[in-house]
Amino acid sequence: MAKKGRLQKKKGFVSIVGAGPGDPKLLTLRAKEVLEEADAVVYDYLVHPKILRHAEHAEQIYVGKKGGDPDSTPQKSIESLLVKLAREGKRVVRLKGGDPFVFGRGGEEALWLARHRVPFEISPGITAGIAAPAYAGIPVTHRKLASEVTLITAHEDPSKKGSDLNWNALAKLKGTLVLYMGVKALPQVVDLLIRYGRKRKTPVSVIRWGTTGEQRTVTGTLATIVQKVEEAKLQAPAITVIGEVNRLRRKLAWFSAEGRIRPNSGGEEKPLFGKTILVTRSRKQASELADELENLGARVLELPTIEVSPIRDFHSLDRAVKNIRKYYWLVFTSENGVEAFFKRFRELGKDTRTLSSLKIAAVGPGTKAKLNAFSIEPDLVPKVFTTEGLVRAFQGLKIARKKFLLLRTNIAPDFLNRSLKKLGAQVTEISVYRTEKPAGLEHRVAELVRQYPIDYVTFTSSSTAQHFFEALKNGRHIEAKVISIGPVTSKTILAFGAKVDREAKVSTIPGLIEAVLKEARS
Ligand code: SAH
After folding, report:
1. CB neighbour list of residue 243: distance below 8 Å, 6 or more residues apart
2. Catalytic positions
3. Which of 235, 223, 142 lies closest to 185, judged by CA?
4. CA-CA distance, 143 to 477, in Å (whole number)?
5. How far apart are CA 345 and CA 330, in angstroms?
6. Which of 46, 75, 229, 276 to mutate to test the pocket of ligand 1 (most atoms within 8 A of CB)?
7. Per-residue pLDDT of the chain (522 residues; tens, 9 = 90+)
8. Does the Cβ of 209 fall within 6 Å of ligand 1?
């Protein structure tokens, strides 16, 4: 019976995959491919959220392990989880920072899979011990300076008896030593190397968050590095490079993120270096904002707190479209509204020339641009890009008894509707798309806030703020600075007992970015 059951199932499979050192673009093509095909992804601390985007439809399970974190998932339960998922017939990706076989316990997990006869493959990644130095302008080997490189893990107390490492031998090597997980143990490592004869003036670099917008490098010698790291308050995750190759950094430092610590070094100075910013827009809309913030040097985390989906019942919309000529004003307050309306319009076989007698209003430039994409030039865009601005613009026009059609989301606040009615208009409001809360948002919010030191959280609409704070539960305690796109969004944020640190002067994405820049300068 059991045998039959197993035969009927799809065969599960585990890919143990390296996610690369930090920059999500340093992922291999093979890794991207298996992520796209995955049913489940089991991922670690240090895996960039952008990489998980390749596995959008997969179940995503975080089992992060941060040095000494008591909440870490124990290794054995990760291994059992992999076997369990594979036995359910799933294509599982076990995603690890850097390379899975370099201090990543990938070997242990593969052994466990082999023992349980779960088929697997290994997909190597670029390891931090090579990539972080490269981004700091340090080649780990060089024909004249280092003919060998040794990768070392120094997470346990290296001076303790029974340590596997032979520091006497390591100190005598002439090449490069690369330490993983070594920030806490650095003082002992330095003592041991000096004690066993490595020169005190040997150059050393410690590189934190290598290859990312957060990269910071502290340089010194065996004699000075401990104090320098302390002064710079540099913490994990960092790679330490010991050896003559460090001398090349002076000439080879090329990565512009380093502009922050060496502002006059020719590296471009970007205003948001060192800032981690959370973008809460829907996945589809996030990229414009996220890309621009990244271009300005920020590390961007995307956490979609809204999901845009089609309406379920087209009855009212279809009737409105059929009788569209009876309206005087069509009002759009979002790009999504424009898109959803014209999609249905097209599906019903309508021609935009039917709209020629109507007046069309757009709340702001984004909505206007979307209308332009359908070759429509709105008759009205208010000076202030908010629903209040829209109402004010209509106050100056004769709208009494005019028929209005508002094409918005299912959760649009009724302020616009009410205000237009007060001005004497006859208002019909129809939901053309739905705004929903993504499943499992609570869990993702908690995880992100726990994993990353977030400097700024951005909100581009009232609904993004509402879902975020509902999921966070204790909004009052958020440490990040809160940046809002405009007054309606700010009102929602304040209602959760959180503060608004800055509100965009102009309620657009460029306006929001301007607010972030101002906050960074303050
Ligand atoms: N398998 C990983 C290493 C995991 S051990 C790899 O191949 O890169 C975790 C350690 O890797 C961290 O403590 C830190 O020393 C190093 N590390 C990982 N990512 C890093 C990064 N972006 N910058 C600096 N060090 C990093």
Report:
1. 145, 146, 175, 176, 177, 202, 203
2. 44, 65, 181
3. 235
4. 54
5. 13
6. 46
7. 444 444 445 689 999 999 999 989 999 999 999 999 999 999 988 788 889 989 988 999 988 765 555 556 788 899 999 999 999 999 999 999 999 999 999 999 999 999 999 999 999 999 999 999 999 999 999 999 999 999 999 876 676 666 778 999 999 999 999 999 889 999 999 999 999 999 999 999 999 999 987 888 999 999 999 999 999 888 889 999 999 999 999 888 888 655 433 433 333 457 888 889 999 988 777 778 988 898 888 888 888 899 899 999 999 999 999 999 999 999 999 999 999 999 999 999 999 999 999 999 999 999 999 999 999 999 999 999 999 999 999 998 999 999 999 999 998 888 999 999 999 999 999 999 999 998 888 888 888 887 778 999 999 999 999 999 999 876 666 789 999 999 989 999 999 999 999 999 999 999 999 999 999 998
8. yes
HSE at residue 118, side-chain half, CA atoms within 13 A, is: 28
Q: Bridge partners of 161?
A: none
* Alpha carbon distance 372, 132 (integer Å): 45
CA gap 310, 288 in Å, rounded: 22
CA of 11 to the centre of ligand 1 (A): 33
- Taking a C-beta distance cutoff of 8 angstroms, is the pair 256, 270 a contact? yes
- Name the one residue in this structure whose structure tokens are 């629903």: 387
Within its chain, how far is the Cα of 38 from the centroid? 20
CB-based contacts of 166, cutoff 8 Å, min separation 6: none
How many angstroms separate the alpha carbon of residue 129 from the centre of ligand 1? 7
Residue 255: which residues within 8 A CB-CB, separation 6 or more? Answer: 135, 136, 137, 211, 215, 267
Q: What is the pTM of this model?
A: 0.61
Per the listing, tokens 């929001």 go with: 512
Pocket test for ligand 1, best of 218, 239, 240 (most atoms within 8 A of CB): 239
Give me the residue label for tokens 């990353």: 452
DSSP-derived pairing of the beta strands 299-302 and 403-409: unpaired
The DSSP result for 371-430, as a single string, is HHHTT---SB--SS-SHHHHHHHHHTS--TT-EEEEEEETT--THHHHHHHHTT-EEEEE
Looking at residue 42, its amino acid is V
- Tokens read off for 437: 């809360």
Instruction: Report whether residue 128 contacts ligand 1, using a CB cutoff of 6 Å.
Output: yes
Beta-carbon neighbour count of residue 403 at 10 Å?
15
Spell out the long-range contacts of 474-478 with Cβ–Cβ below 8 A and sequence spacing 24 or more: 478/449
The verdict on the CB of residue 297 being under 6 Å from ligand 1 is no
Task: Map out the domains of the chain with their CATH numbers.
Answer: 13-125 (3.40.1010.10), 130-252 (3.30.950.10), 276-306+438-521 (3.40.50.10090), 309-436 (3.40.50.10090)
